[in-house]
Amino acid sequence: MTTEEFKNRVFPIKDKLFRLANRILNNSEESEDVTQEVFYRLWARRTELENYRSIEAFAMVIAKNMCLDKIKSKHYQNAGLTEWNAPVDYHSPQKIIELKEDAGNIHRFIRQLPEQQRLIIQMRDVEGLEFEEIAEILQMNLNAVRVNLSRARKAIREQLTKTHNYEYKRS
Question: Using one digit for the tens of pLDDT, what is the confidence trace for 87-127?
């Protein structure tokens, strides 16, 4: 693979790699380091990249494994997903507040999920990866990915419903 081909095929996944690393590590600086290291490893194996069905999936596996290794070696706690910007309805200040509260609650509920479910939610709902790609990255059975995603969404939905019911009864 030439330098130009490498730039065209690998550089576009930089942001996805960073977001995945940042979701796992919850540390921007270390996530940047992981992203750079993934690029270094891909460059070192550039002659072999054509053998992989999906370079993106291969890169995501490398990033995930590096992040998990960092967590194990440093013995620090995974603080969970960082927050992303929620869609905002600019027509009503009350609606804006409600949406921000809901987004905060959802992030909190996601952080409470088991690690595997957090990763699957991140990859599917935030990154927009296909089930097959997630299964390949996490080295899981396709049905297990679907089941874990379903359970994660159900747990979040139940927690959000409880929160809304509590707030409704309170007011």
Answer: 444 566 766 777 777 777 788 888 888 988 988 988 888 77
Q: Which two tokens stand for residue 136?
A: 């390949």
Q: What is the pTM of this model?
A: 0.52
